[in-house]
Design a protein that fits this description.
5 strands, about 35% helix
């Protein structure tokens, strides 16, 4: 299945890694590797997290990767990563 990352999801990961790499390069690498592995697993298996309704009314599914949550949508052709969002932040609109 094709995995498509939204620009917002890529920015989320980049900001998290940039923050961590200043503090611990191994932790930043574990975060990046773990998120990518989870997204690949979600895309390849029929796992689905609970549905969430974003502030803009869009429906997505979410799967925890503490302290983050992966928000995604699945179609027969693609797995779309909407956001990789830190769970302590304000609820997302998109």
């Amino acid at each position: 299945m094709t995995i498509i990352w939204s620009p917002e999801a890529l920015t989320d990961i980049e900001e998290a890694i940039d923050y961590l790499v200043e503090r611990s390069a191994p932790a930043a690498e574990r975060l990046a590797t773990g998120i990518i592995a989870l997204v690949e697993r979600l895309a390849s298996e029929e796992l689905d997290g609970p549905e969430h309704v974003l502030g803009n009314g869009e429906r997505v599914r979410g799967w925890p990767f503490p302290p983050f949550r992966i928000y995604y949508q699945r179609t027969p052709e693609a797995f779309f990563v909407v956001r990789v969002y830190h769970q302590r932040r304000e609820p997302i609109a998109r």
